[in-house]
Automatic annotation (TrEMBL):
Gene name linked to the record: pgi
Native source organism of the sequence: Undibacterium arcticum
Name recorded for this polypeptide: Glucose-6-phosphate isomerase
Pathway: Carbohydrate biosynthesis; gluconeogenesis; Carbohydrate degradation; glycolysis; D-glyceraldehyde 3-phosphate and glycerone phosphate from D-glucose: step 2/4
Role of this protein: Catalyzes the reversible isomerization of glucose-6-phosphate to fructose-6-phosphate.
Enzyme Commission number(s) from the entry: 5.3.1.9
C-alpha cells in the first residue's frame, strides 16, 4: 500500500499541532498533576521493566503516537519481519534474526526451506564443538587444552560477541581467556599475539562475507604468525571460521568441518544470535547461550503479539521518535549502570546508526524529516564525572537511557546501593532540574552575601525537563541480556518503519571502502598520485615520503 510522505500524514500533522502545546510542559508539573504517572507510563515485558514516565509526554501524546504507528502500518511490517518477507529491499533479503532464537519446536518455511531446522542444526554443531573445547577434550597441536580464544572480525562480527562476552563475565569459563581483534591497525592484533601462546590458542575468523578487508588481513597475519610460531601445519586444530561464504573459507585454508555457517538473511549487526556467537558460547557455555536466545525470543513473542499501546519495543520506539522528530533532540545517550555493560553503548551505536542512519525512503525519495539520532554513551557513574555536565546544563537536550540491574553479580558491600542511588538520582535530576529560587534559597542558607548569590545563581541553575528512560532487570543474566538486545533491535525496526526507510542495508560504508582500496594501491606504487583533491594528494605524498608502509 502506498503511504503519503511521513510529514504529510494526518497522524504526523496531529502530532505537530500537539507539539505546540507539549513544548511548554514541565515534567515536574506533569508528575505533580498525575500521581499515577509512574504506573501509567511504565510496563514489564520479558523480564524487563521500562519506565518512560520521565519524558515530555501525556496520555494524548502516547495515543497520537500509537495512531501514527498504526497509520504507518507498523503491525503489518512487524508480521513481514517475523514471517521472512524480503523487507531488505535493496539487497532482496529477509531480515530473520528472530528465527535464530526460535525454539526447536517452531518451524518457519522461507523459500521452501525450514529455516528453524537449519538454525538448530548449526546450534547442535556449536554445542558439540564448544563442549569439546570447554571440557579440555579439544587439544592444541602439542596436546594441551585451549586457554585463549581470539575472535577476529569487525562491525557486527565483533561488537556483538565482544559486548555479550563481557556482559556475561560472571558466567565465563575460568580457563578460557577471550580476545577480540577488529582494527586493521596492526597494534590491535600485535597486542593479542604478544600475550598468547600458539600451542593453546584458538582463532575464530568471523565474517559474514569473508571478504572484509580488515578481517582478512588480520586473519592472514594471525595464520602467518601461527604457522611461523608453531612450525607445524596444525591449522585445523587452531582455526575455525564463521561465515556465509564456504568457498572463501576453503580457499583461506580452513577445514570445512571447522566452519559454522549462517545465512544471508542475518544482517551483520543482528548476527550475535547466529554462529557469530561462537565466541560467546565458548566463553559461557551452550546452556547459557541458549538462555540468551530464549530471553530474546521472549521479547520477540511480546513484540509480535502485544497491542501497540502495551508493547514495550513499540512504546520505546515511539518515545525516541517523539524526542527526535518533535522535540528536536539529535542525540541519544546510553548510560548502563553496570560495568559489565560497558560495551553496550558501542554495540547500540552500530545497531541504531547503521540501521537507521538513512536519508531516503524505501522508494528512494527523501525522508523529509530527521532520522536516527547520534547514539553514544558510557557507563554510569563514569559518565557523570566526565560529560554529564553538558547533559545537565549544555545548550542541547539529550535524552538518556538509564539501564540498571537490581542484583549485582559481586559480593562487595555498599557498591550496589551507591550505584543504584546514582542511577536514580541522575534521572531525577534531569527531570526536576533546579530553579533559580531553589538555588537562591540554598545559598542564603549557607549565609552567602546577596551580591555573591546573584552572581552564582545563573551558573547553578539546572533547566531540568530533560527526558530519560530507565530500564531495570533483576540481574544481568543471559536471558535478561537477550531480552534487552531484542528490545533495542525491535525499537530500531519500528523507528525504521515510521521513517519509511530500509533498516537492513548499509550502503553508506561502501564509498570509503572503495577509495581506501585505490589509495592503498597508490601508497604501494611508485608514482605520485594526483587524481584526488589537493588535500588528499598532499596527505598521500607525505605518507609516501615519510611513513613506514
Ligand atoms: O562495512 C560494514 C559491515 O558490512 C557491517 O555491516 C558488518 O557488520 C561488518 O561490515 C562486517 O562484515 P563481515 O561480517 O562480512 O566481515
Amino acid at each position: 500500500m502506498h503511504l503519503p510522505a511521513l510529514s504529510n500524514s494526518a497522524a504526523y500533522q496531529a502530532l505537530q499541532d500537539h507539539t505546540i502545546e507539549a513544548e511548554h510542559w514541565q515534567m515536574r508539573e506533569l508528575f505533580a498533576k498525575n500521581p499515577d504517572r509512574f504506573s501509567r507510563f511504565s510496563l514489564t515485558a520479558a523480564g524487563l521493566f521500562l519506565d518512560y514516565s520521565k519524558n515530555r509526554v501525556d496520555q494524548n501524546t502516547m495515543q497520537l503516537l500509537c495512531e501514527l504507528a498504526r497509520e504507518r502500518d507498523v503491525e503489518q511490517a512487524r508480521e513481514a519481519l517475523f514471517t521472512g518477507e524480503k523487507i531488505n529491499t535493496t539487497e532482496h533479503r529477509a531480515a530473520l534474526h528472530t528465527a535464530l532464537r526460535m525454539p526447536r519446536s517452531q518451524a518457519l518455511m522461507v523459500d521452501g526451506d525450514d529455516v528453524g531446522a537449519d538454525v538448530h542444526h548449526v546450534l547442535d554443531r556449536i554445542k558439540q564443538f564448544t563442549d569439546r573445547v570447554r571440557s579440555g577434550e579439544w587439544l592444541g597441536y602439542s596436546g594441551k587444552p585451549i586457554t585463549d580464544i581470539v575472535n577476529i572480525g569487525i562491525g557486527g562480527s565483533d561488537l556483538g560477541p565482544k559486548m555479550v562476552t563481557l556482559a556475561l563475565r560472571a558466567y565465563r569459563h575460568p580457563r578460557l581467556r577471550m580476545h577480540f581483534v577488529s582494527n586493521v591497525d596492526g597494534h590491535d592484533l600485535d597486542a593479542v599475539l604478544t600475550s598468547v601462546n600458539a600451542e593453546t590458542t584458538l582463532f575464530i575468523v568471523a565474517s559474514k562475507t569473508f571478504t572484509t578487508m580488515e578481517t582478512m588481513l588480520n586473519a592472514q597475519s594471525a595464520r602467518a604468525w601461527f604457522l611461523n610460531t608453531a612450525a607445524v601445519d596444525a591449522l585445523a586444530r587452531h582455526f575455525v571460521a564463521v561465515s556465509t561464504n564456504l568457498e572463501a573459507i576453503q580457499s583461506f585454508g580452513i577445514d570445512p568441518d571447522n566452519m559454522f555457517p549462517f545465512w544471508d538473511w542475518v544482517g551483520g549487526r543482528y548476527s550475535v544470535w547466529s554462529a557469530i556467537g561462537l565466541s560467546v558460547t565458548l566463553a559461557v557455555g551452550f546452556e547459557h547461550f541458549s538462555a540468551f536466545l530464549a530471553g530474546a525470543h521472549a521479547m520477540d513473542l511480546h513484540f509480535r503479539s502485544a497491542p501497540l499501546e502495551r508493547n514495550m519495543p513499540v512504546l520505546f520506539a515511539l518515545i525516541g521518535f517523539w524526542n527526535r522528530n518533535f522535540l528536536g533532540c539529535n542525540s541519544l545517550s546510553i548510560a548502563p549502570y553496570h560495568q559489565d555493560l560497558s560495551c553496550f553503548p558501542a554495540y547500540l551505536r552500530q545497531l541504531e546508526m547503521e540501521s537507521n542512519g538513512k536519508r531516503v525512503t524505501l522508494d528512494g525519495s527523501p525522508v523529509g524529516v530527521a532520522t536516527c539520532p547520534i547514539v553514544w554513551g558510557d557507563c554510569g557513574t563514569n559518565g557523570q564525572h566526565a560529560y554529564f555536565q553538558l547533559l545537565h546544563q549544555g545548550t542541547d537536550v539529550t535524552p538518556i537511557d538509564f539501564i540498571g540491574c537490581l542484583q549485582p553479580s559481586h559480593k562487595l558491600p555498599q557498591h550496589h546501593a551507591a550505584l543504584l542511588a546514582n542511577c536514580f538520582a541522575q534521572s531525577e535530576a534531569f527531570m526536576r532540574g533546579k530553579t533559580g529560587a531553589e538555588v537562591r534559597a540554598e545559598l542564603q542558607g549557607q549565609g552567602l552575601p546577596d551580591s555573591d548569590i546573584e552572581a552564582l545563581v545563573p551558573h547553578k541553575v539546572f533547566p531540568g525537563n530533560r527526558p530519560s528512560n530507565t530500564i531495570l532487570m533483576d540481574a544481568l543474566t543471559p536471558a535478561a541480556l537477550g531480552a534487552l538486545i531484542a528490545l533495542y533491535e525491535h525499537k530500531t525496526f519500528v523507528q525504521g518503519v515510521l521513517w519509511g526507510i530500509n533498516s537492513f542495508d548499509q550502503w553508506g560504508v561502501e564509498l570509503g571502502k572503495a577509495l581506501a582500496r585505490t589509495i592503498q594501491g597508490e601508497l604501494a606504487g611508485q608514482s605520485r598520485p594526483d587524481d584526488h583533491d589537493s588535500s588528499t594528494n598532499g596527505l598521500i605524498a607525505i605518507a609516501k615520503a615519510k611513513a613506514t608502509l
